[in-house]
Queue: 2 jobs
Job 1
Amino acid sequence: MRNVTLENVTDIVLGSLGKHQPIAARQREIMESLIQHLHGFCKDVDLTHDEFLYACDYLARAGQLCSDKRQEFILLADILGVEVLVDMLSNPISGKETASTVLGPFFRENAPVMPKGASTVQKAFEGQETVYVEGYVRDTKGQPIQGAILDIWEDAPNGLYENHDPDQPDYNLRGRFETDETGHYAFRALRPVPYPIPDDATAGELIRAMGHHTMRPGHIHVMINREGYRPLISQIYDSNSDYLDDDSVFAVKEDLVGKFERAGEGADTDLVLRFDFTLPEQAQMMAAE
Ligand code: BEZ
Ligand code: FE
């Protein structure tokens, strides 16, 4: 096709799919929709060539920021509400299980494995409030799930995750905990504080382009894995925190808001948080799909 025009360019590109080598049905579905939406977007906003070059340079700069300590593209997806959308599409809720939410860019694999009740705190911060977090992991029939691994991570009272803060010990405020035969888990940690998502580079440019702010409400991340059950990636939000109703990455869900209460006399932490999780069985998931 030599005579490409504004009218036929989208159809010509769509027609190239699978023309010279076979492509899988799912790949075709994704590529067709991507091409249609991208072309539609450019036409909708009448994109100029200068704006196109700016976008190419922007993506190149975002890519250059990525390393094993920083994942800029997840951050950009979060700012646009894309990660929370994809998570809800991937993990439909039937009503019984604990809601999932965004993973975010700060998860690190291989956090230290700790005994039940241990503390993730390796460094003290002035004004910090300690919290004992405990609860049960159960299936949708209310039966305990033994041997589930909870991966926990949170920011420090200075608003920074340890991998973005050279002054924190490696894996500070991170840990992995296993449920016992009653499904019970427990760990000690710090009350999480609201923090700004990184806005020093391309993420900041995007936030400013949206006229939005950078703050997230205080939360503790949790990822739960147990063979036979749907893995859960979620967060527990502090009911007292600011920004619950105006999260910069749109990830708050009512059911994930927990109450940090004053600990009783003789307790070794300032606060206590009780939070239970429900995981759907893997077989149940497949039946629902
Ligand atoms: C987080 O909760 O760690 C997070 C999520 C999305 C973007 C930035 C941070
Ligand atoms: Fe976070």
Job 2
Amino acid sequence: MNVRDLRHLTAVLEEKFTGSGEPRFFRAPGRVNLIGGHTDYNDGFVMPVAINREMLVAARPRDDRIVKVYSCNFEDARSFNLDRIEFNREIVWINYIQGVAEFLQESGCSPGGLDIVLQGRVPLGAGLSSSAALEVAVALAFSKIFELEIEDVKLASIARRAENEFVGVNCGIMDQFISVLGRKDRALFLDCRTRDYELIPIKDSSFKIVVANTNVEHKLAESAYNRRLQECQQGGEKLASLLEGKIQKLRDVSPDEFNAVKDKLPEVIRNRCQHVISENQRVKDCCRALLDNNLERAGELISLSHQSLSSLYEVSCAELDLMIDIALNIEGVLGARMTGAGFGGSTVNLVENQVVSEFKTRLVREYNDKTGIDPDIYICEIVDGCSEIPGNWNEKIRNKHNNQS
Ligand code: GLA
């Protein structure tokens, strides 16, 4: 966020709302998951990074219980009363904010009314967690403005509950967690069961994290996601009876245990379990590789993750597979995989600095030749999790304004 952004948000706030007082500013990043696809809801391991595509929020308190929100992206204003929060069937986006307000209150906090302006810079439908960035940024605004003193993991959990229980989208904890707890130039190795995490320094500056958006979004994504949840649940139950062990989630099954009994599982369930169990191991191995600065090994594991998501877990699609194929044929690409739920969205690629420009040109050309679609390419920086934009920005804005007039 720069001074121009803040001036713009302030101007919109003043134009759309009648209140007064200085706004405060907040940001929350989107993410790419380097490895650990579809493991979070199996209590497994993931390793995302927060990226410099963010949700920006300007907010100031009101003296009533109304929350008024203007979305610059949708050019739409909506409002609701904190004491009468109801799901909005027509306007989907406002439910993310209502959900946050609902679960803040449910968890014992007492937020008040706000005027809010939203400016989303996380591309929508790209698999980069624009919704988690929105939930987290709004939750942080409430938390700071009303001094709710919510610690980080709880903030992430409230944001996730908004999405699961209010908006009605099943998702694991990964997206909200990284949007809160991510750190600059670090990947976050997260145990989704215990919520223990470790920030892994990305020491090597010889490569870039490049995200490529297929610009397709297949309709079956949500139903397939829910089906995978059920299949994993069934797999866990079957494995619990075969192994006669205490297995709550697939996370509890080691690769050796799985190999001993896998032939007794129906094929589809076997494949789903095989993916999750081997993927958990790959995340741990990739974490080790990054700590050892062994980029070649990290890249290899990332590419193996894609293969497994595509052939065993079946959440890829022709466009994602094509992108991965093109990427892996370019010398200097260390690894590539789909990221997010799948069936469209983006790939994440580790690309050596000297081939980034060639990567971009070739991927755009070859992908477009075969699909007729222009992909978007984002060369990403790893940034900090959500924060308030500190200090004297209002003053800076005024000074800049005065100097210009
Ligand atoms: C979506 C969900 C995440 C995670 C990924 C798959 O992005 O929001 O919680 O399950 O899919 O890894």
